[in-house]
Amino acid sequence: TPTRLADYTPYNFEISETRFDFRLDPKATRVRSLLKMKRTGPGPLVLDGEAIDLVSVEIDGRQLKRSEYRLTQDKLILEETPDVFTLNIESKCNPSANTTLMGLYVSGGRFCTQCEAEGFRRITYFPDRPDVMSVFTVLIDADKTAYPTLLANGNKIEEGDIDGGRHYAVWHDPFLKPCYLFALVAGEFDLLEDSFTTMSGRSIPLEIFVDPGDAPKAAYAMDSLIRAMAWDERAFGREYDLDRFMIVAVRDFNFGAMENKGLNIFNSSLLLADAETATDMNFERIESVVAHEYFHNWTGNRITCRDWFQLCLKEGFTVFRDQEFSADQRGAAVQRIKDVRALRARQFAEDNGPLAHPVRPTEYLKIDNFYTATIYEKGAELIRMLKAWLGEDMFRKGSDIYFDRLDGTAATIEQFLACFETASGEDMGQFMRWYEQAGTPRLTVRRRRTPTKPVISQVVSFKQVTPPTPGQPKKAAVLIPIRWQAIGENGPLMEPQLTVMTTKSTDVSYPRFDEPHSISVLQGFSAPVILNSDATTADLVRLMGNDPDAFNRWEAGQTLARRLLVDFAKALEAGKMPKTNPALRDYCKALGTTLNDPQFDNAFKALVLTSPSSMEVLMEAAPIDPIAVHEAGQWLSRAVADALRDDLLVTYKAMRDKTGVFSPDAEAAGRRALKSRCLALLSARFDPLAASLASNQLDNATNMTDELAALITLSRLGGQRVESSMEAFFAKWKDQPLVLDKWFSVQSMRDHADGIHAITRLAETPSYERNNPNRVRALVGGFSMGNTKLFHKLDGSGYRFFADQVLDMDSRNPSVAARLLGAFEIWRKLDPRRQALVQAELDRIIAAKPSKNVLEIAERTRG
Ligand code: ARG
Ligand code: ZN
User: Fold this and answer.
1) Interface pTM (ipTM) of the complex?
2) What crossing angle do the helices spanning 379-390 and 311-330 adopt, rounded to 10°?
3) How far lies 281's CA from each of 270, 273, 376, 554, in Å?
4) Partners of 567 in the beta sheet?
5) Backbone angles phi, psi at 793, to 5 degrees
6) 221 with 251: CB under 8 angstroms?
7) 232 alpha carbon – ligand 1 mean position (Å)
8) What lines the ligand 1 site, CB under 6 Å?
9) Distance of CA 726 from the midpoint of ligand 1 (Å)
10) pLDDT tens figures, 678-715
11) pTM across the whole model
12) Is residue 707 flagged as an active site residue?
């Protein structure tokens, strides 16, 4: 039975003080807890617990008899308790056998934890819900040689040696927190240290703990952390609160990272980087995730969620904050474009398929399944709209009220919005619909060119419709902030306008202009909607050249490309060759103009030269053969490369590094991005030029960005050099797990001559670690999301292999397995033959009696 938002009731006890005493042992860790309980409502005391052994329960020092409590699969129930009492529980768990990587587990011989959302119950019996907050004191006792470093949340208040070669440490966290923010780490680490002085003058030691030998690779994360701490003070007035801040990197981790109070735990792939082993994209992600987890200290920890339906309260706001940070550090336009590209590829796919759900869902089977692009990325878009609508000053005023009013509480979306209502006086009723309605609104814009004379004004009309989603057949109008502007041959003809649309349709007028002009709509992507515009090719070319809004300059090119790709894909599906046409020629010409314009930066040019993702085209052309969509992309690249060959080659050469010194900064990364883009486009012509450029680049690369781009190009080109290059890369990097992940992912996306057999062999090589989420995501995730030809092969072998891998992973790690299964969410967009094949696999998965996690995704996907 699902958990429902409507069923929320407060917990019937308060825990004024919490003490945990851990005696660490990989096979049998003993946990003693002491909880100071106070009854606040009627009913039994119910504690959560899973996969742990209960040793004893005491109330006020008296051990309970077996008949005095009830034990079920996942609960410990005490029917009768005093109103105020001390509860002592002793339990045992087995961290080394914990393959779910939720709760307490062992990774690389070190103990670590992951408790969000419901992992704490695998550690000991406790009310595992975010609205039960307490002050925690934690004692850890472990073998001193094997586990020299002992960490938990807060400040270290005591440590020392004990008999038998063991030692202990006591940690105290003075801030109220729910148990999902608990963390414990023990093991041997190298330490990278620095410090930050806060705005009130407190000096905070910063410590990053990594596997021995990896400390230099944490330098960029440390630098990012310091910049993030300074930015949060500037942008939101938020200061750090504890005496120290710690980050730990672990290799086996289900997600990206976790914001545990004062002790963030990171997937090492989002923390460790240097020029030789990490790409620019890795550096960029590290900067943003380090900031994200740090920002959670206020949006997530100081103010947490009342229940898991409110997940977007912390995640949407925190993603918005990390996006703004990245925009500040790396350039707003480029950052916005990247965020919107990701939103369209992932969130729009989710919002327009069987897994569509509101930003604040109303029911779930497993909350792990709701750490989605909708809650994170669409959640962030809602905050961005709030800011666009209310304006910068009101937005800041509202967030100040929020931090002030709700500090130390577990809050709801309603309470959050009420702060902005207080600040601005605006009614939040309609805005709330964004949280309650699933689905991507379609915004249609039509220009009315009225012929009546004399024309004093012209009109643009907007209409909004949100299509039905599972369980929500009828949708109401949402509040849409629309930024727009009329653009002429030489730039804007008016100031940018903000129209706040609150009804199903609305008309806006603007003064008459005699010169030809186009309307730039949704500048900066001011709302997460699908725009259906009547812009002509001439309009779009004009906007590509003249729109002062850099996002829409890029977007105009994307719209042109999307139209071409949909046409190409439909032609290819029908067995026809796509034809060159005037729109294609105009598009290529406009790309050339942008490429050669010195006023644009290189990162922006690289994005203009990147066409819409296959996912975007698939959604627009559905139902369709996905291989036709893939080939349409290749056709377009080839056409661009044919038209711009010389410019691309000149640019490629001009972007090569001449300094010989690697820098991960935005400028240097932008040069490498444009260079890689030129190489990728040139390779679409399948001529010897691209092969020799790529070979050269691979042989001479001094950083992973160049090395990997060259390897990927060679692997796409095929031919003799591929096998030997893949082997050489493997041999060179076999001792670097994060680079080996890249190797697996490139291999998983190749169009191997012997098809699925090659992928199956990869899954059988000794270096394929089937318990490690990063490795599994590299191979299985890479294959399902990045290998169009083999995954979607019409004999069904790709889907079958994938389903087998999901089931195999599910037997050990349900949350990662369920997430992988998301690759099937697009199945209704495929042609009927493939739909039947996917459906059969979904049925097979359901029949195999999988975990709750996988069952929920499989059933909802199937519909
Ligand atoms: N709160 C973490 C973050 O966004 C992610 C935790 C993921 N947990 C989960 N059950 N999926 O930074
Ligand atoms: Zn987060």
Assistant:
1) 0.98
2) 70
3) 10, 10, 20, 20
4) none
5) -60, 140
6) no
7) 21
8) 116-117, 255, 257-259, 292-293, 315, 368, 371
9) 34
10) 999 999 999 899 999 999 999 999 999 999 999 999 99
11) 0.99
12) no
